[in-house]
Write a structure and sequence with these properties.
The complex is a heterotetramer, with one copy of chain A, two copies of chain B and one copy of chain C. By secondary structure, chain A is of the alpha+beta class. Chain A is built from 25 helices and 28 strands. Chain A has three domains: about 1-10 and about 20-60 and about 205-385, Phosphoribosyl-aminoimidazole Synthetase, Chain A, domain 2 (Alpha-Beta Complex); about 70-200 and about 445-575, 60s Ribosomal Protein L30, Chain: A; about 405-445 and about 580-743, Phosphoribosyl-aminoimidazole Synthetase, Chain A, domain 2 (Alpha-Beta Complex). Helices cover about 35% and strands about 35% of the residues of chain B. Chain B has helices at about 15-30, 55-65, and strands at about 1-10, 35-45, 75-80. The radius of gyration of chain B is 16 Å and the shape is elongated. The chains are: A alpha+beta, B alpha+beta, C alpha/beta. Bound molecules: adenosine-5'-diphosphate and magnesium ion.
C-alpha cells in the first residue's frame, strides 16, 4: 500500500479503511472522523485503534475506576496520584516510593518464558519512568490445576522468564503468590509488581513541556514485535511488504533494559529531562500522544528517524510496535549534548526524533510527508467510554444457599491427616521450587522475602528506613461475593505488612477478570471495584494506581474474579521488624482475633470439591485495630514472631511457623475441627517471651482484639491437642509437592 | 549409529539478543567480517542404524513439539554423516 | 587500602561488593569496564551479575573489556584478584583460573543459603578463616557447575587449590563439590557463592562472608602476596 | 550475501545437562528414537559476497577466541548455501 498522507485523506475521503479489523466499532470510527473533520490516514487509524483499545483506554472500566479518585481519602502522603505511569507515595526522610502491578496474562500463555519476562520488563520501565530506581519485584501468579499437563508447560516457563528477566536486572524478588485453580488452565495469570525509590525532588512526569524542546527516543531499536498485541490487528490488513506475519510475542532483552536503567538514572541524576515516558503498550503512539497532551500540547515527530531493527516496517507498524526496552524523553536543547554523551557511555542507541511545539497538533512526518496530524488529547485521553451492562449472575444466589459439608477433625489421626493434607496441597505447599529461582539478595537491602508474610527492603542504610509490600487476592471469596472479596484481599495484604510491624500506606491493584461483554463478569468487576474503593476509604488508604486485565477466559468460561491487591507499608527501622517465626523454645503462642466457622471459600472446602457458601464479612475497623496492635507490639518489643492466618487456616499458619526455623510447638485448641481449617479473617498468631504476657494482654485489650492462648514453642514436633506430627514428616509433606510435580 | 541434527533458530523477525551481543563483540576484538549474527540451538540426536523416513517424521514432530517453540522459532531436521 | 570493584555493562553486585569492602574497613574504588586504568588500587574484585547479559557464555564477552588488560597484568604480578560468580566466570574465560563454569545440572537458576567448608585458608582472600571452617553464604547462579578435565582436577586437589567446597547435596553439579578455586600463587580466587551478600545478618543469611574482605585487607597490610 | 555457520558443541567428555534433559523428555512424550541427545549452539554469520579463504580463517580465529571456550567446547566452521 502506498503511503497514506493527510493530503490524501483529504483528497480521497471515501477510501475504505479496515477499522473493524483494527478493533474499532463503527461509532468509534465515526467519532475519529468527526474529531479530524476528515477520514484518518492509515497511520492515524493505527494510533487511534491501539490507544482506544480496551487495554490502553480502559473504556469498559473507566466509569468504575473513577471511584478510586472520588471516594479517596485525602492524604498528604500521595505525591503523585492515579493517571501517571505509577503513583508516588511519601515515606518520610525525603524519600518517595512508587509501586505498581501489571498483568501479562495472555502473552504468557502463548510463550510462557518471553511473556512473563517482558511482563517484568514493562512494569520495571513504568517505575523507572517516574524517576525512581527500581528496588524490587514481586510476581502474583495463577495457574490451572498443578497436575494438569498444560500447567507443566506454562509454569516452569513463566517462572524461568520472571527469574531470567528480573535476576538479570539485579532486582530482588521479594514475594508473590502461586495459586492453582481449574479456571486458570487456559488462561494463567502473570501479574508483576515493581517498587522503586527516589528523593522527592527526583519525581519525573510524562509531559512534553516547552516548545522547542527535543523529543528523544533511546534504548532498543524498533522491530515488528507485538504489533497486534494491543488491539487484534493483523498487519496484513495494511498489505505491508514485510514478513507475512508480524510476531504477536515480544522477546525481551534484559541486558539492554539493565543498561537502560543505569543510563536513565545517570541522566535523571544530572537533571537532563523535562518529561519522560516509557514505551509499553501501543509503543510510540502512546508515548508521543501522552507526552504531548500532558505538556505544551503539540509535538512534531519525524518517524523515519526511528532506528529500526527491521527495515521493512511501515509507518503504521512503527507507530504500533511494542518492541521492548525503549524510552522517550523530552530534553532541552542546551542539555542534549550531555544526554547523548551518557547514552554513548552506556552504549545505548539514541535518536532525536522531533520537537515539542505550542498548539494542539501532534504532527508526524514520514520522509517529509505529513502522515499524522491529530489533537494529541483525543488520542491519549478522549477515548470511548462504555457503560457496559452488568447484572448479578445467577450463580451468586445458588452458591450462597449451599451448605458446606466437609469432614472436621476430632481424633488425633484426623488432626494429623488434616494438617498433613493441607501442608502438602499445591496451593499451600512450600513454594521454594519456584522462589529459589529468583535472586532475593541482590542490592543487599532485602530484609524479608519469601516465605515471609511480606517483602521488606531497606531504603536507607544509615537511618534503617524501609518499606514492606504484600500482594493478595482470594478469588474463592471474590467468586462468592466480589464486593467483600476485594475488601478481604485488601485486608489480607495490609495485615501481611503489619505482622512485621510496618504501617500500611498505599494501595495498588491488578484487576483480572473475564470478558466485560458478559454482564455477569462486568458485575463481578463493578462489585470488586466498589468493594476496594470502599475498603480503602474505611482503612484510610489511597489507591495509587493499578491495571485492569479483561478477557481472561477459556471459551465462555471466565476465570474466577481475581482482584490482586498490593499494599505498601513503611517501617521506620527495619532492624526492629517482627519476624514471621520463632527460633527458640519456651515462647508463648497466642492467637489474635476471633475464629468463627468460616469454611466457605476455604482451602479445606476446595479440597473437598466445594466452593459454595457465604464469604466472610470484612470488618475493616477490626482490621485497623489489629494493625495498630501489630505495629505497637513491634515498637514496644512485645512480639518475638507474628504470622497471619489466611488460606489453610491455623493449620497452615502453624505449619509454616514451626518449619521456618525448625522449632516445634505444642498447642491446644477449642473446637479443633473448625479451629484448624476455618479462614476467618483478621487473625494473627504471635509468639512472645513469657515475660511479655501481661504487656500483650494489656495491649490486645486496649485495641479490642480477642486474645487466645494456644500453647508454647519447642521440641521437634508440632503437637495439636495431643496429636503429634514430627517436623521431619511435616517438612516432607510440605516441601515435596512442587518438586514432584515440576521436577 | 547415525546422527540426526535439528537446528533451531529464532524467526528472522524476532529479536535475538544473543546474536546481537555476539555481533557487537566481534568488531571490538578486531573481527569485521560479520554483517549480522544470529544464535540458535543445535541438537545432535543419535539413533540406531540408518534413520528411516518414519523416524525422521517422528523427529520432525518432536522438533515442533519439544525442541522448538513455533511461535518464535523455526527448525530444520537433517541426517548428518 | 583501596580495593577496586569493576562494573561491566550488566554487572549487578558491584554496589554490594563495594559495601562489603567498606564494612571490612577498606576503601572501595569503582572501576569502569571501558577504562584501562586501575586508579592505583591495591586489589580488584570482579563482582557478580550478568555482564553483557551472560549471552554467548557467561563472562565470555566482558573478559575482553579494556579494564581486563591491566587487571590481568597486575594479577600476574601478585595483585589480589577476586572473581565472585560472574566474576569467577570472567576469570575462567580469561584462563586465569583453570576450568570452566557450566549450566547448573538442574538447568535453572538457584538462589539459596549454602553451607561451604573453607578448604584453603592460605590465600589472599581466605586467610581470615579457620582451617576447615564452615560458613553459610548465598549461592545464586544459573551456570555455576565447575568443570575441568580429570588431570586438572587431580592437579587442583593435589596442590590444595580448591579453596571452598559445598557441604551436603551438590547444589549445581560442580565437580568434587568445588565452590572456589585459586591460582598457584594464591592471589587470584574465583568463588561461585556470594560473600558480599553475607556481611550482616540483617540483609544476608549470616555475616560469614565478611572474612573474604577482611582477609585481603590483612594480606595487603602484611605486604601483599609473595 | 553468504552465510557462514559455526557449530559449537560441548566436548564429548563434558557432561551436557541440557542434552540429557531433552533425552529424558522425549520418551515421556512418546518419542523413542533417541539413543542420546547433545545440545550445542549454532551461529549464523552473514557476510557480504562469497566468503574468501582469508575471511574463513578469520572466522576460525573468532570461533576459537570468542564463540567457543576450548576448555569445554569444540567447533566447526562451514559455508552454507
Ligand atoms: N510467585 C512468587 N514469587 C515470589 N514469592 C512468592 C511467590 N509465590 C509465593 N511467594 C511467597 O511465598 C510466601 C507464601 O505465600 P502465601 O502463602 O501466598 O503468603 P500469604 O498467605 O502470606 O499471602 C510469601 O512470602 C510469598 O510472598
Ligand atoms: Mg501471610
Amino acid at each position: 500500500m502506498a503511503l497514506d498522507t493527510v493530503a490524501q485523506a483529504i483528497a480521497q475521503p471515501d477510501a475504505v479503511q479496515p477499522f473493524a479489523e483494527l478493533g474499532l466499532k463503527p461509532d468509534e470510527y465515526a467519532r475519529i472522523k468527526e474529531i479530524l473533520g476528515r477520514r484518518p490516514t492509515s497511520s492515524e487509524l493505527a494510533m487511534y485503534s491501539v490507544m482506544w483499545s480496551e487495554h490502553c483506554s480502559y473504556k469498559s472500566s473507566k466509569i468504575h475506576l473513577k471511584q478510586f479518585g472520588e471516594k479517596a481519602v485525602k492524604t498528604d502522603a500521595l505525591l503523585v496520584g492515579i493517571g501517571e505511569n505509577a503513583g508516588v507515595v511519601d515515606v518520610g526522610q525525603g524519600y518517595a516510593v512508587t509501586f505498581k502491578i501489571e498483568s501479562h496474562n495472555h502473552p504468557s500463555f502463548i510463550e510462557p518464558y518471553q511473556g512473563a519476562a517482558t511482563g517484568v520488563g514493562g512494569i520495571v520501565r513504568d517505575i523507572l519512568t517516574m524517576g525512581a530506581r527500581p528496588i524490587a519485584v514481586m510476581d502474583p501468579l495463577r495457574f490451572g490445576p498443578a497436575e494438569a499437563a498444560d500447567t507443566k508447560r506454562v509454569l516452569p516457563g513463566i517462572v524461568a522468564g520472571i527469574g531470567g528477566y528480573g535476576n538479570c536486572l539485579g532486582l530482588p524478588n521479594i514475594g508473590g503468590e502461586v495459586v492453582f485453580d481449574e479456571t486458570y488452565l487456559g488462561n494463567p495469570l502473570v501479574n508483576a509488581l515493581c517498587v522503586g525509590v527516589m528523593k522527592h525532588s527526583d519525581i519525573k512526569l510524562a509531559k512534553a513541556a516547552g516548545a522547542g524542546n527535543l523529543v528523544v527516543l533511546y534504548g532498543a531499536k524498533t522491530g515488528g514485535d507485538g504489533i497486534g498485541g494491543v488491539s487484534v490487528l493483523a498487519s496484513e490488513t495494511f498489505e505491508s511488504k514485510g514478513p507475512a506475519k508480524r510476531p504477536a510475542v515480544q522477546v525481551g532483552d534484559p541486558f539492554v533494559e539493565k543498561v537502560l536503567i543505569e543510563c536513565s538514572l545517570e541522566i535523571f541524576a544530572e537533571d537532563l529531562v523535562v518529561g519522560i515516558q516509557d514505551l509499553g503498550g501501543a509503543g510510540l503512539s502512546c508515548a508521543t500522544s501522552e507526552l504531548a497532551s500532558g505538556g505544551s500540547g503539540g509535538m512534531k515527530v519525524q518517524l523515519d528517524k526511528v532506528p529500526l531493527r527491521d527495515p521493512s516496517l511501515s509507518p503504521e507498524e512503527i507507530l504500533m510496535s511494542e518492541s521492548q526496552e525503549r524510552m522517550c524523553a523530552i530534553v532541552e536543547p542546551s542539555k542534549i549534548a550531555r544526554f547523548l554523551e551518557i547514552c554513548e557511555k552506556w552504549d545505548v542507541t539514541v535518536t532525536v526524533i522531533g520537537e515539542v511545539t505550542d498548539g494542539n497538533h501532534l504532527e508526524i512526518t514520514w520522509n517529509g510527508e505529513l502522515i499524522v496530524d491529530v489533537p494529541p488529547r483525543t488520542v491519549a485521553h478522549d477515548g470511548p467510554v462504555y457503560q457496559r451492562p452488568f447484572a448479578e449472575p445467577a450463580y451468586i444466589k445458588q452458591v450462597a444457599a449451599e451448605q458446606i459439608d466437609v469432614p472436621l477433625a476430632a481424633s488425633a489421626a484426623e488432626i494429623r491427616n488434616t494438617v498433613l493434607t493441607l501442608a502438602a496441597t499445591p496451593n499451600l505447599a512450600d513454594k521454594s521450587w519456584i522462589t529459589s529461582q529468583y535472586d532475593k539478595y541482590v542490592q543487599g537491602n532485602t530484609i524479608q522475602a519469601q516465605p515471609d508474610d511480606s517483602g521488606m527492603v531497606r531504603i536507607d542504610e544509615e537511618t534503617h528506613l524501609g518499606v514492606a509490600i504484600s500482594t493478595d487476592a482470594n478469588a474463592n471469596w471474590s467468586y462468592l461475593n466480589p464486593y467483600e472479596g476485594a475488601k478481604l484481599a485488601l485486608a489480607e495484604a495490609a495485615r501481611n505488612i503489619a505482622t512485621a510491624g510496618a504501617k500500611p500506606l498505599a494501595v495498588t491493584n491488578c484487576l483480572n477478570f473475564g470478558s466485560p461483554e458478559d454482564p455477569g463478569v462486568m458485575w463481578q468487576f463493578a462489585e470488586s471495584v466498589r468493594g476496594l474503593a470502599d475498603g480503602c476509604v474505611e482503612m484510610g488508604l489511597p489507591v495509587t494506581g493499578g491495571n485492569v486485565s479483561f478477557y481472561n477466559q477459556t471459551g465462555s468460561t471466565a476465570i474466577l474474579p481475581t482482584p490482586v491487591i498490593g499494599v505498601l507499608g513503611v517501617i521506620d527501622d527495619v532492624r526492629t521488624r517482627t519476624p514471621m517465626s520463632f527460633s527458640k523454645a519456651g515462647l508463648e503462642l497466642y492467637l489474635l482475633g476471633e475464629t468463627r466457622a468460616d469454611l466457605a471459600g476455604s482451602e479445606w472446602a476446595y479440597l473437598h470439591g466445594q466452593r459454595g457458601g457465604k464469604a466472610p464479612h470484612a470488618d475493616l475497623k477490626k482490621e485497623l485495630h489489629l494493625i495498630d496492635l501489630l505495629v505497637a507490639g513491634r515498637t514496644k518489643k512485645i512480639f518475638t514472631a507474628a504470622h497471619d492466618v489466611s488460606q489453610g487456616g491455623l493449620s497452615a499458619t502453624l505449619t509454616e511457623m514451626v518449619l521456618r526455623n525448625n522449632v516445634g510447638a505444642t498447642v491446644e485448641c477449642e473446637n479443633v475441627g473448625i479451629a484448624l481449617v476455618s479462614e476467618t479473617p483478621g487473625r494473627v498468631v504471635v509468639a512472645v517471651d513469657p515475660s511479655q504476657r501481661t504487656a500483650l494482654e494489656k495491649e490486645a485489650a486496649s485495641h479490642g482484639i480477642a486474645l487466645t492462648h494456644l500453647g508454647t514453642t519447642g521440641g521437634d514436633k508440632l503437637v495439636i491437642n495431643g496429636a503429634e506430627i514430627s517436623l521431619d514428616e511435616l517438612r516432607i509433606a510440605h516441601t515435596q509437592t512442587l518438586p514432584k510435580l515440576f521436577g | 549409529m547415525a546422527k540426526i541434527v535439528v537446528d533451531v533458530m529464532l524467526k528472522p523477525e524476532i529479536l535475538d539478543p544473543q546474536g546481537k551481543a555476539v555481533a557487537a563483540a566481534l568488531p571490538r576484538l578486531g573481527f569485521t567480517f560479520a554483517k549480522d549474527v544470529r544464535q540458535g540451538k543445535r541438537f545432535e540426536i543419535e539413533v540406531d542404524g540408518q534413520p528411516t523416513a518414519a523416524q525422521l517424521a517422528e523427529v520432525e514432530k518432536a522438533a515442533e513439539k519439544l525442541l522448538s517453540n513455533p511461535v518464535i522459532e523455526t527448525f530444520t531436521v537433517r541426517v548428518e554423516k | 587500602m583501596k580495593i577496586g570493584v569493576v562494573t561491566f555493562p550488566g554487572t549487578l553486585d558491584d554496589r554490594d561488593a563495594a559495601r562489603a569492602v567498606r564494612h571490612a574497613g577498606g576503601d572501595a574504588v569503582s572501576l569502569w569496564h571501558n577504562d584501562a586504568d586501575l586508579h592505583g588500587v591495591d586489589a580488584v574484585i570482579l563482582p557478580g551479575g550478568f555482564s553483557y547479559g551472560d549471552y554467548l557464555r557467561c563472562g565470555a564477552i566482558s573478559r575482553f573489556s579494556p579494564v581486563m588488560e591491566p587487571i590481568i597484568a597486575a594479577a600476574q604480578k601478585g595483585m589480589p584478584l577476586l572473581g565472585i560468580c560472574n566474576g569467577f566466570q570472567v576469570l575462567a574465560e580469561a584462563h586465569l583460573i583453570p576450568g570452566a563454569l557450566t549450566r547448573n545440572h538442574a538447568l535453572h537458576f538457584i538462589c539459596k543459603d549454602q553451607k561451604l567448608v573453607i578448604e584453603n585458608n592460605q590465600t589472599a582472600w581466605t586467610s581470615a578463616f579457620a582451617e576447615k571452617e564452615e560458613i553459610v553464604i548465598p549461592l545464586k547462579n544459573g551456570e555455576g557447575a565447575y568443570m575441568c578435565d580429570d588431570q586438572t582436577l587431580a592437579m587442583l586437589e593435589g596442590e590444595g587449590r580448591i579453596i571452598a567446597r559445598y557441604v551436603g547435596e551438590n547444589p549445581n553439579g560442580s565437580r568434587n563439590l568445588i565452590a572456589g578455586v585459586t591460582n598457584e600463587r594464591g592471589n587470584i580466587v574465583g568463588l561461585m557463592p556470594h560473600p558480599e551478600h553475607a556481611i550482616d545478618a540483617l540483609t544476608g543469611p549470616t555475616a560469614d562472608g565478611l572474612g573474604f574482605f577482611t582477609s585481603v585487607l590483612k594480606a595487603l597490610a602484611a605486604g601483599g602476596v609473595k
